[in-house]
Every structure is written in structure tokens, then in C-alpha cells.
Specification:
This protein has about 450 residues and is α+β, with helices and mostly antiparallel strands. The termini are far apart. The protein contains 15 helices and 22 strands. The longest helix has 19 residues. An eight-stranded antiparallel beta sheet has the order 13-12-9-10-11-14-21-19, sandwiched between helices. A five-stranded parallel beta sheet has the order 3-2-1-4-5, with helices on both faces. A three-stranded antiparallel beta sheet has the order 7-6-8, with helices on one face. Helix 4 packs antiparallel against helix 5 and helix 12 packs antiparallel against helix 13. Helix 1 links the parallel strand 1 and strand 2. The chain has three domains: about 100 residues, Rossmann fold (3-Layer(aba) Sandwich); about 70 residues, Dna Ligase, domain 1, CATH 3.30.1490.20; about 240 residues, D-amino Acid Aminotransferase, Chain A, domain 1 (2-Layer Sandwich).
Length: about 450
């Protein structure tokens, strides 16, 4: 097994990875910017190295600095966490070149998965349903209009080179489509360095359901069931759960098998996620591959009892999967609320600052993944996620009640957080009954 692993990230995910490394008897190396000198992941790691100024492009996104620290510290592998360089084919390739294991898929797979158009083609060729749309990037406004006329409005423009809502525009008619093509191409070029966009039929009220995959280098591949991620704002997930209240066993099996086919089509290894959109009639369509650990991975861990970070490390070392599909059991229900340093009553405005007072919830089957502590200064330079509150219970209704109780105990003073927002959702009648879609927050709360 690896003796030492560098964690190329910060915040709660760095803490999360370091904890599993400790349990496996592996030395951990943390990296930190000038803004993170007092961060919890720096305190928890066996070694830590400063990698520069607060700006991410000069620190956490600086491939050369990260590679240099890995080499100087004697780290045999790098865990990228999520965000930053987790889905960077360039970073993975640099690791491969100097013989440092990248705890994730290969650079070639990263490239294939990151190109949405290529991933769509491979999914379609694997017999997995895809939404009707363009066969590749659009070459002209006229082509896009012709496709939209054929498949019917509304349509959505998507960037081939990325996700997170950047480059995405929904057009309900010809004039909107003409205008949005120019905007989407510009945004895609600025965000991803790739101006290619494609057109798909837009589903009005879909569910966002993803499947967790594990795959080894010998071709073995399993899924660990699904996560319901429909509670979103501006394409950013806020609440996730496993299993989905919408799927039955037949559809779950069908989607799980489809997810495995997609991953095999790109030669996937390690942990990854296949995302689907599901309509109200339970028709599902491939959306994209996430070639990394997901923020919401804890809900899968809670219902399966499988440590996904541990699995990532074992697979990166070259171990074969010790899991068989028919022996993966799912028990109970888990819900995760993302705790962001944002003001939900002021359009989710980021609220960095000093944590003056902190009380964490506890009790049976309550988990906190966080980097917060009293006195910690939340910096303004990075994503506003400061923690995740995860609960488990035997049933969904019990899990909701447990989350309600845990949220009532969670006190953070000195900064605004999304805790009040989560309290509102957890008592909403439609949420409790499982009547949700990706438009839930807009329809219910105007978010």
C-alpha cells in the first residue's frame, strides 16, 4: 500500500480524505495557501506545505507547485478531492509522467469524460438513452434552429468542455435561441477554453439522479445505487439523498446497468458518477460523467457502509474490486444538507468571516463533514461550502425528522449560513412527500 499521499485540496474534503488515510495507516501531506494557514486540514495532516498566495490559480490550481511538493515530500500518490484539479486531464497526465499515482481515472479517461459531446456519443453507442439533439457541436445558428424545429422547443444549449451551469441557456423560441448561442459560446470559451456547444431537448421538470460507480483496472465494475440530487439552485446541488424516493427496483436495476455500460465505454477506473435526468414518466436519459469523488458521496457511504475514499485508494494502488454487485446491500435512508457560508435571505450572497461560536449536532446516525471550528476565519477566495450535515435512519420519514432535529442543534455564529434554508425545506409538504424536481426551489421558494 502507499506509504504517503498528498491531498491536493482544502477544506472539508481535505479533512475527509486525511481521516481515511489515518485509518489506513498512510501518512498524509497537506498543501495550503496563505489564506489557509490555520485551516483544519493543515492541523490534521502529518506534513504540510505552503503553496502560495490565496488566489487559487497561484496555489491550488498550480500543477507545477503541487507536483513539486509531492516529489519533495516523497508522496507516492495524490488525491485531488473534488473541484480544483480533480477533473483535470493535464494534472493526471503530469502525475503519470513522473510516476506518482493519481487517485482517480487515467488522464485519457478524464479527457473522454470531460468532453460532453464525446461522452454522449459513447453513451448512445452503448445503448443508453440520450435526449434528442445535435450529433456533436453546432456549426452555425442555422443548424441549431433546424435542430430545434425538429425536436421542438424548449431546447437547452450546453458547453462541451464543462459543467456547473456555465454555458447553459434554455431557449423557448427562435429569437431566444439566436441570442443565446452567441452568449453560450462566449461563456464556454471563457470558462473552459472550448467554445463548442451543443443542443438538446430541454426537460421541463426532471429529476437529477446519479449512480455511484467503482471500477478496477481488470475490468470489474459495480454500482452502489443512486443519489437523488434534484434540490438545486442554478444547477448547484444543495440537498441530496439515497436512495431516490422516485425509483422502483426495476428502474434502479436498469439505470445501474446503464451507468456501468457508460463507464466501460470510456475505460473508466476508480470511483466516478454517471448522472441522469429522469422525467415524470420514469424515462431516463444520460446527462454526463463526473470523473471524481462527489460532494454528496457520504449518503452512499451511509446506506452501503462502504468507505468510498478507501476504495479509491485501494483501486489506485492496483487492487482488484473486492465487491460483487449482488452482494452490495443498501440499508435505510440517508440525507445530506450542504452548509454554505451564504445568506439564503439575500440571494445566497457569500458571507466569509470569522466563526465566533459553534455548536455541532450529534446523536444517533448524525455525521458532520466540516472544516469549521470556533475562531476559524472563512476566507473569501474559495467555494462557500464549509460543511455537510448527513443523517441516516431506517426510513425516509425518519431520516427527515432526524435531519430536522440535527439542524435545530446546529449553531454557527459570526457568519450567515444556509442552515435556515434547510430548515424550511425539511418541513415543506412536497419535499416530505418526495414531490421534487430540479425546479423545486424556483417553484416553492423563488430561489
Amino acid at each position: 500500500m502507499f506509504r504517503k499521499v498528498l491531498v491536493a485540496n482544502r477544506g472539508e474534503i481535505a479533512v475527509r480524505v486525511i481521516r481515511t488515510l489515518k485509518e489506513m495507516g498512510i501518512k498524509s501531506v497537506a498543501v495550503y495557501s496563505n489564506a489557509d494557514i490555520h485551516s483544519l486540514h493543515v492541523q490534521y495532516a502529518d506534513e504540510s506545505f505552503n503553496i502560495g498566495p490565496p488566489l487559487a490559480r497561484k496555489s491550488y490550481l498550480n500543477v507545477k507547485k503541487l507536483i513539486d511538493v509531492a516529489s519533495d515530500s516523497g508522496a507516492e500518490a495524490i488525491h485531488p478531492g473534488y473541484g480544483f484539479l480533480a477533473e483535470s486531464a493535464v494534472f493526471a497526465e503530469q502525475c503519470e509522467k513522473i510516476g506518482i499515482a493519481f487517485i482517480g481515472p487515467t488522464s485519457n479517461t478524464q479527457q473522454l469524460a470531460g468532453e460532453k459531446i464525446e461522452a454522449l456519443k459513447r453513451a448512445k453507442n452503448s445503448g443508453v438513452p440520450v435526449l434528442p439533439g445535435s450529433n456533436g457541436s453546432i456549426s452555425s445558428v442555422e443548424e441549431a434552429l433546424k435542430i430545434a424545429d425538429h425536436i421542438g422547443y424548449p431546447v437547452i444549449l450546453k458547453a462541451s468542455g464543462g459543467g456547473g451551469g456555465k454555458g447553459m441557456r434554455i431557449a423557448y423560441g427562435e429569437e431566444e435561441l439566436k441570442e443565446f448561442i452567441r452568449l453560450s459560446i462566449g461563456e464556454a470559451r471563457a470558462a473552459f477554453g472550448n467554445p463548442e456547444v451543443y443542443v438538446e431537448k430541454y426537460l421541463e421538470r426532471p429529476r437529477h439522479i446519479e449512480f455511484q460507480i467503482l471500477a478496477d483496472k481488470s475490468g470489474n465494475c459495480v454500482h452502489l445505487g443512486e443519489r437523488e440530487c434534484s434540490i438545486q439552485r442554478n444547477y448547484q446541488k444543495l440537498i441530496e439523498e439515497s436512495p431516490s424516493p422516485f425509483l422502483d427496483e426495476e428502474l434502479r436495476g436498469e439505470m445501474g446497468e446503464a451507468a456501468i455500460r457508460v463507464m466501460r465505454s470510456v475505460g473508466y477506473t476508480n470511483a466516478g458518477t454517471v448522472e441522469f435526468l429522469v422525467d415524470e414518466n420514469k424515462n431516463f436519459y444520460f446527462n454526463e460523467i463526473n470523473s471524481r469523488l462527489q460532494v454528496e458521496h457520504p449518503v452512499t457511504e451511509m446506506v452501503t457502509g462502504i468507505d468510498l475514499v478507501r476504495q479509491q485508494i485501494l483501486l489506485a494502488y492496483g487492487n482488484q474490486l473486492a465487491l460483487e454487485q449482488d452482494k452490495i446491500y443498501h440499508n435505510g435512508w440517508s440525507i445530506e444538507c450542504r452548509i454554505n457560508a451564504e445568506d439564503p435571505f439575500d440571494n445566497f450572497k457569500p458571507c466569509p468571516g470569522k466563526v465566533a461560536y459553534l455548536i455541532l449536532p450529534g446523536g444517533p446516525s448524525v455525521r458532520i463533514d466540516s472544516s469549521l471550528y470556533a475562531g476559524y476565519e472563512v476566507p473569501p477566495f474559495y467555494d462557500s461550502l464549509v460543511g455537510k450535515l448527513i443523517v441516516w435512519a431506517e426510513t425516509r420519514s425518519m431520516a427527515i425528522k432526524r435531519m430536522q432535529r440535527a439542524l435545530s442543534e446546529f449553531i454557527i455564529e459570526g457568519i450567515e449560513t444556509t442552515i435556515p434554508f434547510h430548515k424550511k425545506v425539511m418541513v415543506d409538504k412536497d419535499f416530505i412527500e418526495g414531490n421534487i424536481s430540479t425546479h423545486f426551489l424556483m417553484e416553492k421558494f423563488r430561489y
